[in-house]
């Protein structure tokens, strides 16, 4: 895709995100997206077949950003010299920071596009499995972790970190100071990892 085409797609996806916050998914049309993006409806249809395709791209971009963060921190966790508690804490903080960049958009992505997100994942198989197997292997090999059941611990870590990050981003009161929650989570993570 040429740079001009990429720029047009970016503008359309950004416009869709703004409209999602302002009007909601149901009230937004492709004509609205084209108008806010400042492009013709014909140009929009060169890149997206319908409204769902635009919002699916918005979701895909968010999902890719989350997966990239997770991958970076799991690679760091694989270093036997790293502090695994600090790395899991850093991952949680990075996920929270990502979602707090645009809290209004993050809240409506979950509320308005949750079904579209799951439909797209089921239809296209685009959502990879949580990184449980990777974390399980890291728990087995990392010299600082001491767990009796690496698989169960990995499953629980994925659930806790993803759900706490999601809760802080989507459901917690906007004026909540996340630091006490993150401090408690660090203690929970240390306990799960059996770090001494």
Count of DSSP helices?
9
Elements, N to C (H/E):
HHHHHHHHH
The CATH architecture of the largest domain:
Orthogonal Bundle
Number of structural domains: 2
CATH level 3 topology of the largest domain? Tetracycline Repressor, domain 2
Instruction: Look at the helices and sheets and give the structural class.
Output: mainly alpha
Topology, number of strands: 0
Mean pLDDT: 87
Which outline best applies?
A: elongated
How big is the Rg? 19 Å
| Helix fraction bin | over 70%
Give an account of the 3D structure.
The protein is an all-alpha fold and 196 residues long. It has two domains: 1-49, Orthogonal Bundle (Arc Repressor Mutant, subunit A); 51-193, Tetracycline Repressor, domain 2 (Orthogonal Bundle). 76% of the residues lie in helices and 0% in strands. It contains nine helices and no strands. α5 runs antiparallel to α9 (178-193), α7 (132-141) packs across α8 and α8 packs antiparallel against α9 (178-193).
């Amino acid at each position: 895709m040429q740079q001009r085409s990429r720029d047009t797609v970016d503008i359309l996806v950004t416009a869709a995100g703004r409209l999602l916050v302002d009007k909601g998914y149901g009230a937004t049309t492709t004509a609205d997206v084209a108008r806010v993006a400042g492009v013709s409806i014909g140009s929009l249809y060169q890149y997206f077949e319908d409204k769902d395709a635009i919002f699916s791209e918005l979701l895909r971009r968010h999902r890719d950003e989350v997966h990239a963060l997770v991958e970076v921190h799991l690679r760091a966790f694989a270093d036997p010299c790293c502090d695994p508690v600090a790395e899991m804490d850093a991952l949680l903080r990075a996920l929270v920071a990502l979602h707090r960049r645009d809290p209004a958009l993050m809240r409506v992505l979950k509320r308005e596009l949750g079904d579209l997100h799951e439909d797209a994942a089921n239809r296209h198989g685009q959502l990879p499995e949580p990184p449980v197997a990777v974390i399980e292997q890291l728990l087995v090999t990392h010299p600082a972790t001491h767990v009796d059941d690496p698989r169960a611990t990995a499953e629980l870590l994925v659930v806790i970190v993803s759900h706490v990050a999601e809760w802080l981003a989507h459901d917690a009161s906007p004026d909540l100071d996340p630091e006490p929650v993150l401090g408690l989570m660090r203690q929970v993570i240390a306990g799960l990892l059996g770090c001494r």
